[in-house]
Amino acid sequence: MIQERLLDTHCHIGAYQDPVAVLRAAEEAGVALVAVTEDPDEYRRLKMRLGRRDHVAVAIGLHPLHAATFAQNDMARFMRLLPDAEWIGEVGLDYSRAGAATAKTQQKVFDLVLAEAKRGQHTLTVHSRGAERDVIQKLAQAKVRAVLHWYSGPMYLVEEANRAGLYFSVNIAMTRSRKFPSLMGAVPRDRVLLETDGPYAKDRGNVAHPHQLTAVAVALGHAWGTELSDATETILANQRRFLSKD
Questions:
Q1: Are residues 98 and 88 in contact, defined by beta-carbon separation less than 8 angstroms?
Q2: Which helix (H) or strand (E) segment is 10 a member of?
C-alpha cells in the first residue's frame, strides 16, 4: 500500500535559494506540494526547471499585487498556458495598504481568471488579504474548487466561505498567531488543509520548509484537542475530498 502524503497547497518553491534541495527534502519526508507562481513567465520557467516530478504540481499564477504590471500579452500567455495546468495560484485580491490603489485592476484580472478556470479541472489557491468578502463572493459565484490561502479576515465571513464550499489552508506562522484559536473555532475541521507559504512564512524567525509540514498538523492537533495521528487522518481525508473529481 502506498502511503498517502500530506499536501503543501501553497509553496513558492522558486523563491528558495536551492529549490531542488527543498524538493528533495520534501520527497524524503513524504510531502507533496503545489509550487505556486506569480505570473505566466515564472510558471513557464519553473516548469522547465523542475521537469516532470512525482508529487509536485506547478500552479500558474497572476498575483494580485502585480496586477497593475500585467499587459495584454501576459493575459494572453496565461490563457494559452492554462489548459496544461491543474492548479491556479497565486491569484486573488489584495486591498491592504500594498494593494488598495490597484483594486479595480485586480478585480478585472481575477474575474478573467475565474471566467477561464474550468470546473472539475482546475484547483485554485487564493490570496484574499483585506478583500475577503469580495474574494468569497466571487468564488461562490464562479463555483470553482478553491482554498483560501493564509486567511486573515474577519471570523463572521468564515460561514459565508463554508456555504461556498471553500477550504482554508494553514501554515506554521498562522499557528503562532493570537488569532489562530478563534480561526480554528470558526473553521470546521473538515475544511482545513495545509500550506507553508515558504519561504515567506516564518516559524520563530526560521524559514518554513515543506518537509516540516507535520509541525502544522501537530499545532492543529493541539487546537482540536486530538492526537497527531487523528489530526493527520482528518487532514488527509480533507485532501481526498477537496481534490475529488466528483
A1: no
A2: strand 6-11
pLDDT at 118: 85
Pull the grid cell for residue 191: 475544511
Distance (Å, whole) CA 197 – CA 138: 23
Question: Out of 3.40.1620.10, 3.40.30.10, 3.90.1150.10, 3.20.20.140, which CATH number does the structure's domain 6-243 have?
Answer: 3.20.20.140
Gap between the terminal Cα atoms of the chain: 23
Q: What is the pLDDT of residue 1?
A: 31
Q: Count other C-beta atoms under 10 Å from residue 88's C-beta.
A: 29
Per 3-state DSSP, the chain is made up of helix, strand and coil in percentages (nearest 5) of: 50, 15, 30
DSSP E strand boundaries for 120-242: 123-127, 145-149, 167-170, 192-194, 202-203, 206-207
Query: Does the pTM exceed 0.85?
Result: yes
Residues of the chain with pLDDT under 50: 1-2
Task: List helix spans (H) across 30-101.
Answer: 40-50, 72-81
The answer to whether the bond into 199 is cis (omega within 30° of 0) is yes
